[in-house]
């Protein structure tokens, strides 16, 4: 049902012969996805982009997302149609995984879960990221990360910690560091919430839940970094040459924020 809703929401992309457009989309996303796909089709890993200035690192740019698994779409479809279907698939993922989080983490009934999934997958925030494909790609995995963390805490199972690592690793490969940062912030807030609930039952439950929550996030995050190391290592090397390598002032960091 939620998949059909996402398809209906994007009917112009699926059936109307239209494509995603926008300044960042046309000048950044289309060229990057096309260049990566053309290289991979002939068995070449696109380390370097010779078409910008005198050349520039390509793979090391996190937003290239060369190793993101769903980008297989770009190997079998023309770039413009792969962009369309990437949007549709990830909106459907947002909706379904939002539904799953509502059902598993919150424990609501199926209808309420469907409403929750639709509120996330078809929300203004998610819809506004259509022109920033990597941000939409990364945002889709937040609900599943929350589900795997919840199950790791509920069942005290290393398997679910490993599942959390896989989800976070895939999200890192999607190529939007800020979304991964915000996902970890949400997971940390959820651990604190569980710790606060455990504190009402006494010191021992508090320590137990807190220790398992910290371990789950720490081990899961470390394993995720290892899984995504093929992208993170060159990206961290490139970061040292960025104009922001030394950080930003508070004024620069907050320049697009709402005033207090």
What is the topological layout?
Layout: H1 2-9, H2 11-15, H3 23-41, E1 48-49, E2 56-57, H4 73-76, H5 79-106, H6 110-121, H7 124-128, H8 133-139, H9 142-155, H10 158-173, H11 177-199, H12 203-227, H13 229-239, H14 250-253
Antiparallel strand pairs: 1-2
Helix pairs in contact: 1-5, 5-6, 5-8, 5-9, 9-10, 9-11, 10-12, 11-12
Radius of gyration: 20 Å
DSSP strand (E) fraction? under 5%
Largest sheet: 2 strands, antiparallel
Average predicted local confidence, pLDDT: 90
- Give the overall shape: globular
What structural class do helix, strand and pairing data support? mainly alpha
The total of beta strands comes to: 2
Uncertain runs with pLDDT below 50, 5 residues or more? Answer: none
Question: What separation lies between the terminal Cα atoms?
Answer: 40 Å
The number of helical segments is 14
Helical content band = 55-70%
Spatial strand arrangement across the major sheet? 1-2
Question: How would you describe the overall organization of this protein?
Answer:
The protein is an all-alpha fold and 260 residues long. It is 70% helix and 2% strand. A hairpin with a 6-residue loop joins strand 1 and strand 2. It starts with a helix and ends in a 7-residue tail after the last helix.
Features of the shown structure:
260 residues; mainly alpha; two-stranded antiparallel ribbon; 14 helices; 2 strands; 2% strand
